Amino acid sequence: MPNDYYVREEKIVEKTEIEKEMDLIKTIIKTREDLKAANRNFEYAKDDLVDYYTYQIKANQAKLDYLIKIAKVKGIEIDMISDLKFSLWDEEDVS
What we know:
Elements: H1 17-44, H2 48-73, H3 78-94
């Protein structure tokens, strides 16, 4: 039976609103760090890498703008994101 390969054995568990907000904050932090890295790398880029890092910067900035817009709609303040930055990364290292 061809559909046997698509049967899920575990029930899919929906995330709570708090978990969704924490994921959003983590994504904002990661995107901001990616943007910083792309900007640093752009400073030393040569030839075709200039175009690559230009696109990386534009893509990460657009993503960050979108994520911050979502965070504002949900009532998440940027100060909360800054405060949680280091504690979230520590939790991931332990897991």
